[in-house]
Amino acid sequence: MKNLCKLAGIAVLVAVIGFAVTACDNGTTSDVAPNTAGRLKILGIPEKYEGYYVGFLSDDEKLYGFASINGDQPAYGRINKNGEVTLKVWKKDSDYVDFSGDVIVTDGKIQYYSNNKPNIAEKAITSIKFTAGKAFLVGSDWP
Q1: Which domains does the chain have, with CATH numbers?
Q2: Better-predicted residue by pLDDT, 1 or 13
Q3: Is 53 helix (H, G, I), strand (E, B) or coil?
Q4: Which whole-number Å values give the CA distances from 112 to 7, 66, 97, in the listed order?
Q5: Residue in 132, 111, 113 with CA at minimum distance from that of residue 58
Q6: Cβ atoms 70, 30 nearer than 8 A
Q7: What is the C-alpha separation between 35 and 71, in angstroms, rounded?
Q8: SS3 93
Q9: Which helix (H) or strand (E) holds 10?
Q10: What is the pLDDT of residue 119?
């Protein structure tokens, strides 16, 4: 009977340690924002902006467009050689969440910068229509 009690005690101890290890964060979890249906495609960007990084913000609608988000750290999208960039768009209240709605943004801004010019410049956007979370802009009127 003593051996049975010891065996049961060891089994309980192993189970407790197993649950404790499983519950611990071993650094593999992340604060990456959830996937989103939202997309903003910007095309027709002048050639001189190739390689620049771009983000989209709309504080009134709480929409944010980036290549990705890890925690609260956005990664700006990079303009390709065709003068295009596609950003994922999230809605943010307390956390970033999927955006797939219909809305006309009247207070948007595009932020852009290059590696050799770290100051972020902004371009006001007065009308973007998102349908099912998707929209596009033509960037040919950039400064």
Answers
A1: 38-138 (2.60.40)
A2: 1
A3: strand
A4: 65, 11, 23
A5: 111
A6: yes
A7: 13
A8: coil
A9: helix 2-23
A10: 72
